[in-house]
Amino acid sequence: MYTTTSDEQIWVAFQDGDKQALASIYYRSFKFLMAYGHKISADGDLVKDCIHDLFVEIWNNKLNLSVPRSVKAYLLTCLKRKLIRYMNRRRRAARVEVNRLPDRQQVESREDQLISDQDSLDQQNALKLAISNLTKREQEAIYLKFYTNLSYEEIVGVMNISADSIYNLISKAIDVLQKEAHKSRKIAKHL
Question: Are 136 and 46 in a shared domain?
Answer without folding.
Answer: no
